[in-house]
Amino acid sequence: MQSKTTSRSVYGEHAGRSYEIRILDWDGAAFTVTVYLDGFEQPKSDDDHSWSTYEEAVRMGHELARSMIGH
Length: 71
Fold this sequence. Notes:
The protein is an alpha+beta fold.
C-alpha cells in the first residue's frame, strides 16, 4: 500500500511581517514544517522539524516563524 502525503498551509503575522507555514502530513505518521517569509522558503536549522501531531506542528511552526522574524 502506498503512503499518502498531503500539504496544508497556515498563515500568520508577526512584527508587521506575514508568513506561511507549510505542513506536510506523512499519512498521519509525522508532520513536518517549512516556514516561508515574504514568499521565500527559509532554510531549516539542524533541528528536526517533525512532530507527531498536526496541532503540535502548527504551534511549533508559529514559534519557528516568530523566531526567524525576531523582535
